[in-house]
Design goal:
The complex is a heterodimer of chains A (427) and B (478).
Chain A lengths: L2 H28 L5 H23 L7 H19 L1 H25 L5 H4 L1 H13 L7 E4 L2 E7 L2 E3 L1 H26 L2 E3 L2 E3 L2 H21 L2 H19 L2 H21 L1 H11 L12 H13 L21 H34 L3 H25 L17 H27 L1
Antiparallel strand pairs in A: 1-2, 2-3, 4-5
Chain B lengths: L1 H28 L1 H5 L6 H6 L7 E2 L5 E7 L5 E4 L7 H4 L2 E2 L3 E2 L1 H5 L1 H4 L5 H9 L8 E4 L3 H12 L6 E7 L5 E7 L4 H4 L2 H8 L10 H4 L9 H10 L8 E3 L4 E3 L2 E3 L9 E3 H6 L3 H23 L18 E3 L5 E2 L8 H4 L6 E2 L2 H12 L3 E3 L4 E5 L5 E4 L4 E4 L3 H17 L3 H5 L5 E8 L5 E9 L3 E11 L3 H15 L5
Parallel strand pairs in B: 1-6
Antiparallel strand pairs in B: 1-2, 2-3, 4-5, 6-17, 7-8, 7-22, 9-12, 10-11, 13-14, 13-15, 16-19, 17-18, 20-21, 21-22
Classes of the chains: A mainly alpha (427), B alpha+beta (478).
C-alpha cells in the first residue's frame, strides 16, 4: 500500500473516534443517541480527506502517520472541548479548519524547497524575538496569572509564543548547520567532557540570554523551559557533545535560580508548586493546581466517563485540559493520549534520522523536540512535576494560535519528510 | 547525527514516563489522600447529584429521604423533625454530614469499588444510594425524648441498648435540633453558638458528666470479680472515714455500722466503696475500667468527631489514666474525683453486667439494601470482650436488683418493671446543683439516663422514672 493510501486508511479510526466521542457525550447529556454525532464524524472525516488530497498532490512521499496522529489528537481535543462547552467547540472547529488551510498553504508555498527558510534565518530569528516581546508592548499586551503570554488586538487574542517557537527552531537549525563543524572541531576536553571553544560560546550565550530574557519578559517558566530545551536538543543533535548540553543546562539552572529569586511572580509560582495545599493557599493562588489534582484523583484507573465528571477546575479547556482528561478517561486514557504524542515524536525523529542534509535533520529534530517539550511542560505542570504554566496541550487544548502554529509545525515536518523519503527511495 | 537523535528520543520517552508516573500517583496511588483533603469538596458536590439512600427505623419509619430539585440535584429531608437529629445527623452540601449520615456515607451514596463501578457504567447503570435500616425504635425514641423534655431542666440524655446484642434502640439528647433548620445559615449559626443549651451537642456520646453513685456498679464488679470481696462481705460504713488522707462523708452524713456489700450498694454508702477502691488499688480499678471501655473511643458506628472518651480528666480536659498519681482512687470508686463519663459509656456498663459479663459493641446501623432489594450490609452483633465472669455478673445483678427493690425512692419509681439498676446523684456545687443518673437493665434491655444540672432532686426520683418509661416502651413492663 502506498504511503498516501495508508494515511487515508488511518484517518478512518480517527473519524470513528470523533463519532464515538460525541455519541458518548450525547448519551451522558440526554440519555438519547442523536445522529448528530454521525454528522460530526462525517464532517471531520470530510475535512481530513480534503487535506489528505492536498498532501497527496503536493507531498506524495511524506510520512503517512504524522497527519492521522495529529487528526486523532485534534478530534480528541474537539470532543473534550465540546463536553466542556459546546460554543467553544464550535469556534475550536473553525480554528481547526483555519489550521488545515494554513497547513495546506504552508505546504503549497514551500513545496519546491523548504530550505529557502535557511536564507531568511536572521529575519526569522528577529521576527520570533519580536513575537516574544509583543505581549509586553503597552496597549496590546495581556497578562494572565502574572505571565505575559497573550496579545489582544481588538477582538482577536493570540499567543505569539506559539509561533515564536517555530521561528526559533528554524533559526537554530540554520545557524547550527553552518557552525556545527567548527564547534565540534575546536572543542576542548576537560575532565572527560567536551566543552565548546570560547569563541563559539558566543551564540550559545546569546540564546541563553534570550531564554533568561524571555523568562524575565514573559515571566513564564514553562515557555522558557520549552525554548531552552529545544535549543539544547538541536545543539546536541548537531554536535553530539553531551558537554555542550551540560554547560547549557548548568547555565539555565543558575539563571533560572537567579531569576526566581528576583521576579516575585515566578517565586510565587514556585512556592505554589512546592506546597499547593497550604491552608492559606489552597483556596486562592493554589486553587488551580489543587483542583487539577483533585480532579485527577477522581479519575482513578478508568475514569468517570465522558461527561461524567464535575468541572471545578479553572481553565478546564486550556491549561488544565489534561486534568479533565484524567478525570473522565482515567489513567488508562491519559496513558493513551501520551502514547499518541510519543508515536508522533517517534515519527518526527524518524524523519530527522532519514533526512540527508543537516538542515533538514536539525529542523525535524528541533520541531519534534519542541512539540514533545511543550507536552511535557503543560502535563508536567498539571501533574506537579514542574511549576504549572500557561502553555497549551498541542492540538488538544482550546486556542486558535496553538492550533494554527502547530499545524504550521506539522506542515514543516511533512515537508522535510517528503523530501527525505523520496531521496531514500531513489537511492 | 543518528545516534544523538535516538538518545534524544530516549530522553523524551523518559520524560513521558515521568509524566505517566506522576499521573498514576495522583489518580490512583495518592487518590484517597487527595479525596480526603479538607479543601476537596468534589465528593459532596457530586453526591448532590446522586439519589441518596433512605434511612429508616427498625420499625420502618422514614428518618431521612431525598427529594429531587428542579435543577437535578437532590436535597435531604427529615420527616421526623428533631426526633433523630443527634444519632442520624444530617447531610447538606454546605455543612457536610454528621452522625449515621456521615458514618454510612459510602452505602448511602452507593460508592463502589473501582472495578464494580466500571462494570456498572458499561451496563449503563447510574450510581444510586443504598437504603439503610437502623436499630433505632421510633416509639422508644419519642418516649425518651418527651420524658427528657418534661424533666426539671429539659436537658439530658438517654441511651437504650439491647442487652444481648448491643443494638442501639434509642439514643436521645435533649434539647434536640431539627436537621432541616441547619440548612439555613442564620439558624445554624444561632444553634451552633448557643453556649447555654448547646442543642447541636450530642449529650449521649459527647458530654462528660460526673457519674456519681452509678459508678459504684463498676467498683462493685471490680470488688466481686477480683475475688477480694463477696456480696456478703462486711465493711464498716462509718461517716467521715479517712480516704486518701481526707475524711469522706456519706450522703446526708449518715453513719452506718458494719454492713454487707449488697446493703452498702443499696444504701449507696460512700465510705464503704471509698475503702474498697483504696484496698483494690489503682491497678485493679484500671483493669476493670479498661475492660468496660473507659479511656477508649467507644466502638460505636458514629463519626469520631461525635464521640468522646470516658474517664478521669485533668483540669484542662486531658485524659488521665486511673493509675496516675493525681487520681484519688477512693473518690474515683464512688464516681467523684475527676471522672467524666458519657451516657453511652454507662449504658454499656449496664449492658455488660446484664449480658453475663460480656461487653457488646453498640451499633445503630443494622442493614443496607441496594435498589433491587438485595442486602448489601448486614451488621452482626460483635463482642468487645469479657469484663467479668458469668458468676460475678450474676452476683452483681442480684445486688443491683436489691438496689431497685429496696433503695430509697426507687422501688416506687420503678414499680412495674423487673430490673436491676443503680441511681446516681452527682453534686456539681455546694448549693445542691446535681446531675441526676440512673442506669439499669432488664433481661432484654439496658438503659442509661442523665438529667443535667437540676437544683436539688435525686437520681432515684428524677432519672429512674424516665428509665422506667423507656423500658416500658421497649416492652419490658411486667
Amino acid at each position: 500500500m502506498s504511503a498516501r493510501n495508508r494515511e487515508l486508511m488511518a484517518l478512518v479510526p480517527a473519524s470513528l473516534l470523533v463519532t464515538a466521542g460525541f455519541a458518548a457525550i450525547f448519551i451522558q447529556r440526554s440519555q438519547v443517541l442523536s445522529d448528530v454525532s454521525l454528522t460530526y464524524g462525517a464532517i471531520f472525516l470530510g475535512l481530513c480527506v480534503v487535506t489528505h488530497i492536498v498532501i497527496r498532490f503536493t507531498l506524495p512521499d511524506a510520512d503517512p502517520y504524522l497527519f492521522p496522529l495529529v487528526a486523532l489528537l485534534a478530534c480528541f481535543g474537539l470532543v473534550i472541548i465540546y463536553r466542556l462547552d459546546p460554543a467553544k467547540a464550535l469556534s475550536q472547529a473553525y480554528w481547526f479548519v483555519g489550521g488545515l488551510v494554513l497547513f495546506s498553504g504552508t505546504i503549497i508555498a514551500l513545496r519546491k524547497d523548504f530550505r529557502v527558510l535557511e536564507q531568511y534565518r536572521y529575519t526569522i530569528a528577529a521576527a520570533a524575538l519580536a513575537l516574544l516581546l509583543l505581549p509586553r508592548l503597552p496597549g496590546i499586551g495581556a497578562q494572565t496569572n502574572g505571565a505575559y503570554l497573550g496579545v489582544k488586538l481588538g477582538p482577536i487574542a493570540f499567543q505569539p509564543a506559539e509561533f515564536a517557537k517555530i521561528g526559533i527552531v528554524v533559526f537554530l537549525a540554520a545557524y547550527l548547520r553552518e557552525h556545527r563543524d567548527v564547534m565540534i572541531l575546536s572543542a576542548r576536553r576537560v575532565l572527560g567532557l567536551t566543552f565548546p571553544p570560547l569563541k563559539h560560546f558566543g551564540p550559545l550565550l546569546f540564546v541563553w540570554v534570550a531564554a533568561m530574557a524571555s523568562l524575565f519578559i514573559i515571566r513564564d517558566i514553562g515557555s522558557s523551559l520549552m525554548f531552552f530545551g529545544a535549543f539544547l536538543a538541536v545543539l546536541y543533535v548537531a554536535t553530539n557533545r553531551l558537554g555542550f548540553v551540560l554547560v547549557g543546562l548548568v547555565l539555565f539552572v543558575l539563571g533560572a535560580w537567579a531569576v526566581t529569586h528576583t521576579v516575585g511572580h515566578i517565586q510565587a509560582r514556585v512556592d505554589i508548586w512546592l506546597n499547593p495545599f497550604a491552608s492559606d493557599r489552597v483556596l486562592n493562588d493554589g486553587y488551580q493546581i489543587a483542583q487539577g489534582l483533585f480532579a485527577q484523583a477522581d479519575g482513578g484507573l478508568f475514569g468517570t466517563g465522558f461527561g461524567g465528571s464535575l468541572i471545578l477546575t479553572p481553565a478546564p479547556s486550556t491549561d488544565l485540559i489534561y486534568a479533565v482528561i484524567v478525570d473522565e478517561l482515567g489513567l488508562a486514557g491519559a496513558c493513551g493520549l501520551l502514547l499518541v504524542y510519543l508515536l508522533l515524536a517517534a515519527r518526527g525523529f524518524k524523519t530527522a534520522m532519514i533526512a540527508r542534509d543537516s538542515f533538514s535533520t536539525l529542523l525535524a529534530a528541533g520541531l519534534t523536540a519542541v512539540l514533545a517539550l511543550q507536552v511535557f511542560v503543560i502535563v508536567g505542570g498539571v501533574t506537579r512535576v514542574i511549576p504549572l504554566t500557561g502553555v497549551t496541550l498541542p492540538f488538544v487544548s482550546y486556542g486558535g494560535s496553538s492550533i494554527l502554529a502547530n499545524f504550521v509545525l506539522l506542515a514543516l515536518l511533512l515537508l522535510v519528510s517528503d523530501r527525505a523519503r523520496r531521496e531514500v527511495a531513489r537511492r | 547525527m543518528k545516534a544523538p537523535i535516538l538518545k534524544l528520543y530516549g530522553m523524551v520517552v523518559l520524560l513521558f514516563a515521568v509524566l505517566i508516573g506522576f499521573t498514576s500517583y495522583w489518580s490512583v496511588f495518592d487518590a484517597e489522600a487527595l479525596r480526603n483533603q479538607p479543601a476537596n469538596h468534589r465528593d459532596e458536590l457530586q453526591e448532590q447529584r446522586i439519589k441518596r439512600g433512605t434511612i429508616r427505623t427498625a420499625d420502618g419509619r422514614l428518618i431521612a429521604g431525598s427529594i429531587k430539585l428542579s435543577d437535578g440535584r437532590y436535597r435531604r429531608r427529615y420527616p421526623q423533625h428533631d426526633l433523630f437529629g443527634h444519632p442520624v445527623g444530617y447531610s447538606f452540601a454546605n455543612l457536610g454530614a454528621t452522625g449515621v449520615e456521615d458514618y454510612y456515607n459510602d452505602q448511602l451514596t452507593g460508592r463502589k469499588s473501582e472495578l464494580v463501578s466500571v462494570f456498572d457504567s458499561l451496563l449503563g447503570k447510574r450510581r444510586v444510594g443504598e437504603d439503610l435500616e437502623t436499630n433505632l425504635d421510633a416509639k422508644v425514641q419519642k418516649v425518651a425524648m418527651d420524658a427528657l423534655r418534661a424533666s426539671p431542666t429539659g436537658r439530658g440524655a438517654v441511651v437504650a441498648l439491647d442487652v444481648k446484642t448491643g443494638a442501639v434502640r434509642a439514643l436521645v439528647s435533649s434539647p434536640p435540633y431539627d436537621p432541616k433548620d441547619l440548612d439555613n445559615a442564620r439558624v445554624y449559626r444561632r444553634l451552633a453558638t448557643d453556649s447555654k443549651t448547646t442543642p447541636l451537642l450530642d449529650r449521649a456520646t459527647q458530654s462528660r458528666y460526673p457519674p456519681g453513685s452509678t459508678f459504684k456498679a463498676v467498683t462493685a464488679v471490680a470488688a466481686v470479680d477480683s475475688g477480694r470481696y463477696t456480696p456478703a462481705s462486711q465493711i464498716s460504713g462509718k461517716n467521715n472515714k479517712v480516704i486518701s488522707g481526707v475524711p469522706l462523708q456519706n450522703f446526708a452524713g449518715e453513719d452506718f455500722a458494719s454492713l454487707s456489700l449488697t446493703d452498702a450498694l443499696t444504701k449507696s454508702v460512700n465510705t464503704v466503696f471509698g475503702e474498697i477502691g483504696e484496698k483494690l488499688g489503682k491497678t485493679t480499678m484500671k483493669r476493670y475500667m479498661d475492660r468496660f471501655g473507659f479511656d477508649a473511643i467507644p466502638p460505636i458506628d458514629l463519626p469520631r468527631a461525635q464521640l468522646t472518651r470516658s474517664g478521669e480528666r485533668t483540669a484542662s480536659g486531658g485524659l488521665l489514666t486511673p493509675t496516675s498519681r493525681r487520681v484519688d482512687v477512693g473518690r474515683m470508686a464512688i464516681g467523684q474525683d475527676k471522672l467524666g463519663v458519657t451516657p453511652l459509656q454507662m449504658a454499656t456498663v449496664a449492658q455488660t453486667i446484664g449480658n453475663g459479663g460480656v461487653r457488646m459493641k453498640p451499633f445503630i446501623g443494622a442493614k443496607a439494601f441496594d435498589q433491587d432489594g438485595r442486602t448489601t450490609l448486614d451488621k452482626k452483633p460483635e463482642e468487645a470482650g469479657r469484663v467479668m465472669s458469668g458468676a460475678s455478673a450474676a452476683a452483681v445483678t442480684a445486688m443491683m436488683k436489691q438496689v431497685v427493690k429496696e433503695g430509697t425512692g426507687t422501688a416506687a419509681a420503678l414499680s412495674g418493671v423487673d430490673l436491676a439498676g443503680k441511681t446516681g446523684t452527682a453534686e456539681l456545687n455546694a448549693n445542691g446543683l446535681n446531675d441526676l443518673w440512673f442506669i439499669g437493665f432488664t433481661t432484654r434491655h439496658a438503659v442509661a439516663v442523665v438529667v443535667e444540672q437540676v437544683q436539688g432532686g435525686q437520681g432515684g426520683t428524677v432519672a429512674a422514672p424516665i428509665a422506667k418509661k423507656v423500658l416500658e416502651a421497649l416492652g419490658d413492663g411486667r
